[in-house]
Amino acid sequence: MAVHLFGAIDVGSYVYEMKIFELSRKNGIRQIDNIRHMIDLGTDTYHSGRVSRVHMAELKRILSESAAIMKNYQVEAYKAYGTSAFREMKNSSMVLSQLEQETGIRIEILDNTEQRFLDYKSVASKGEVFSRFLEQSTAIVDIGGGSIQISLFEKDKLSATQNLRIGVLRVRDQLERVGARSVQNETLIEELVNTQLNVFKKLYLKDRDIKQIVVIDDYLADASRDAANFGGAGRVIPGDMGQAEFFNTDALTAFIDGLRENNAFALSSRLGISDEKIPLLKISSIITRCIAKTMKADMIWVPGVTLCDGMVYDYALSRKYIKPEHDFEQDILTCALQTSKRYKGSEDRARTLDLIALQIFDSMKRVHGMGSRERLLLRLCALLHDCGKYISMQNLSDCSYNIIMSTEIIGLSAREREIVANVVRYNHRQYDYYEDSGMRGRLSMEDYLTVTRLTAILRLANGLDRSHKKKFTDIKIRLREGELQIIVSTKKDITLEKGLFDNRARFFEDVFSVKPVIRQREF
């Protein structure tokens, strides 16, 4: 049985963590080591945009030790990610270069949506419990140092996701700046959090009640592992789903009361966590209660997973050590579709365009050389192709671009979002060469070519349904001897489609050296 060792490193805003995993196709994922270290990078970067010399030296030491541990385990592959503390660093490229040069570990900075998607996958690693939980209206609440991400699910499908800048370190910083006394903290935290939650409720919850929430954090998870920590019989939810991972809002309120009534030393001894984490635990607990009250949720699940669990789950899926039990790609598409709906896009029209564009993409595989990820980006382009109409029908291209660039689509990197935004923009306006487009410096030449190819496909698909009346009951597309033959079945007049098709076909031919032709087959 082939066994593969993988290292996952999360350089977080407050906690550094490395987990070593054993992977095999027979046994799946098995954790064999876990190293955690408190290092407050977030306070440095949120204040000054730079990491202090003391913390830089400490981080180099920790990474060097991690490199030695991975070498001793004979780890064959690893991933190391930095999150919000690195995202807010003004000199991140210099810092990353120094760290790699002196420790040998290369750290990549995750965009917020990439980080939250991996956190989401960490919950998915819980398998059947995760699947059962998503059968009802559920919110996944990912509490970080700089912000929290709230993702809403309806019947196992992602319906909305939004980032709120009320992370535990940022809230602690705000409390310190206003000089709040400890007896005021709970009330002030609730005011800070509820201000943003009220806006979130109006935009995304409306009259909908969320029955249960899943909390991902570095604070409440540690304290909730022992049911006795919550005190009082009956408040922790028993049963086959787990022990103290599951509890109701009464248990959470009792826990917060206990945090308020005891000093940091007593709480540290009782909960088995460092006393410096106690203030952050209080903030995370109060944030969780505010969210539960806003959503009217009673069941709270704290699975105790971390970004490292999502990293190994994602790696194991890509290497086929495990089989996917959830369609994560569909979550990304649903998120885009919800964005389109928010800006009054036509779902029917978007799905028609998606279907045609995919047929063209699949027929041209040996010519364009793009893979499954580009195929997903094309689908997102089709779903978001007309979102800018909500702002201006006259300036559709730039409005669409700005909406997409301003919207976090969970699972996409900033680079991928830029690709999608440019494809949608150039679907509605004259295409610019790389040197004149303003993309140089933001996108690589290869990314520009991806934009070009996807734009050509989307334009052609758009031309086949220009009247928005779905005139074709059946479309068959095939590549034959330098021609992309588009065979359509219809009884309707397609003069408009044929007339507007030529210009889009010329651009497609320039990009792929393949001539698209329409052949009408009447009933």
* Mean of pLDDT: 87
Q: Give the beta-strand count.
A: 14
Through-space gap between termini: 58 Å
CATH topology of the largest domain: Hypothetical protein af1432
Widest β-sheet, arrangement of strands: 8-7-6-9-11-10
Question: From the alpha-carbon coordinates, what is the Rg to the nearest angstrom?
Answer: 26 Å
Task: Label the CATH architecture of the largest domain.
Answer: Orthogonal Bundle
Helix percent reads 40-55%
Q: What structural class do helix, strand and pairing data support?
A: alpha/beta
Total domain units: 3
Using the coordinates above, name the CATH class of the largest domain. Mainly Alpha
Q: How would you sum up the major sheet?
A: 6 strands, mixed
Low-confidence segments: 226-244
What's the number of helices?
Answer: 22
Please name the fourth-level CATH homologous superfamily of the largest domain.
Answer: Hypothetical protein af1432
Strand content: 15-25%
What would you call the shape?
A: globular
Task: Report on the architecture of this protein.
The chain has 523 residues and is α/β, with parallel strands linked by helices. The protein has three domains: 4-111 and 312-318, Nucleotidyltransferase, domain 5; 126-304, Exopolyphosphatase. Domain 2 (Nucleotidyltransferase, domain 5); 328-521, Hypothetical protein af1432. The protein has helices at 41-48, 53-73, 84-87, 92-103, 112-124, 128-133, 168-177, 185-205, 220-223, 249-261, 264-271, 278-295, 307-318, 328-342, 347-363, 365-368, 372-383, 396-405, 414-427, 434-437, 445-463, 495-512, and strands at 4-11, 15-24, 28-38, 77-82, 108-109, 138-143, 148-154, 157-164, 212-216, 246-248, 299-301, 474-480, 483-489, 515-521. Strand 2 and strand 3 form a beta hairpin.
